[in-house]
């Protein structure tokens, strides 16, 4: 016997709908939610923070704040000073200059695909983009402006209170909202139109040299099996070519310094001597545009970087085991840590790294200085 | 008025039927939790040193692996539950839980799953979820997935040097399926199965490994990788 749907059940359903209709609140007028324009081969599992949904108004405000020089003590520097679009949001200097020509001790990081990262700064001291975004404002070597003063300046400005109102529903500006707006803009800085991306999407072929470089990049060497590798993707993972976002796995000691000269790095944050000399593995998107290289900008060219990994690793007590155990030749008994790539193989890896350059990213008008 | 009467009747029927008797519900909530143990202690990846079965010290830095194709069986009735799209990346730093959600009720007495990724899924990397190649478990575009990753450092027993151990085990031959007996699973009852993965068993049973003696401590393909895979198909998991 087929179950008959009693007609009065339909009536109950109608009542339900009507009562819902009666209690429905007025349509919410507020910022327009938008989603990130990311390719389907980027991880889909990273949710937007529930307390900072992406909105058109928030992104627009964040873009203005990113280029707002009022956020520095003397009005000369903005985020965009050390994160310049044409250099994939790095600045080309070994160390960045803040207000009054004060100089930092870290290389300005390139910004792209930040939504998929979990810890920020070279030593990982910020656990969210929102937390990261406001720290350079207060840092005395960078913008050197107490955050309360930054809030006051924006509050007294003719345009900002209403822009905050549009983005967050309140014209009462706070450091929290400044961080949220800046991170919304930064999350939109997606770089996914390089030759590498076109190759992933099956739109182009790589040259034989680029193809060799790609294979070396993504291979950990195993000399007993004659498997040759450049060992890059152990730390620069997946399509993002960025550090592992899980736990502290994205921080590595890459053998830049001897034991005596090891800087604290991640240990400054964790207090764990196991973390001494470990720094964040950056994403390598647009790496050909972001010289100089390493957390302290010590290498001017990609050739110097490859030479370092190939033959000049300093062995020390926290050197990453993925580097310690990576060689294209069996140990010669000397105890030296060397990758033993040929010159052609190094050149191939560099050719592949150039396929990570995204011309549309550095020319995208949505990311440029709105005050120009 | 008549309608209201019907509604009242119907509602009371609903109430009665929902708390009527002790009939076994058609479905039950099933969850599997996993803990990682080495040398009898909870695994830590923060620099803590452990002792391997060989007596060598070992400081783990990364530990992750795939559990796939989860099946629950009631051997008395022949009922089985097979999870669809069953791929779980388990990681000491990340997820250590497999939530099967609501599954058909039965007195399941056997849990079967595989370590690694089956040949079909291992032959492509344009996949999402736990098979997303953006985790560091995809080797590259030709080689498929790493099934199990263990990385860490140890002191070489003869040279005294600090050395790294890189275990990246994959390839279809090393895809292993194992079964565990379950006890106390009652049809209809919310159930949590607690699995322990014992890392000592990667170095033992049947193949005893002394890592200081290995020609290469990068264990990726070849004979030693196959030995580790034999080890993880044997005693690596126990139901608590």
Automatic annotation (TrEMBL), chain A:
Binding site for heme c 1: 79, 82-83
Span of domain Cytochrome c: 208-357
Source species, domain of life: Bacteria
GO molecular function: cytochrome-c peroxidase activity; electron transfer activity; heme binding; metal ion binding
Coiled coil: none
Cofactor annotation: heme
InterPro entries: Cyt_c-like_dom, Cyt_c-like_dom_sf, Cytochrome_c_Peroxidase/MauG, Di-haem_cyt_c_peroxidsae, MauG/Cytc_peroxidase
Cofactor note: Binds 2 heme groups.
Protein name per its UniProtKB record: Cytochrome c peroxidase
Source species: Algoriphagus chordae
TrEMBL record, chain B:
One Pfam family named in its UniProt record: MbnP
InterPro entries named among the record's database cross-references: MbnP-like_dom
Domain Copper-binding protein MbnP-like: residue ranges: 29-215
Protein name: Copper-binding protein MbnP-like domain-containing protein
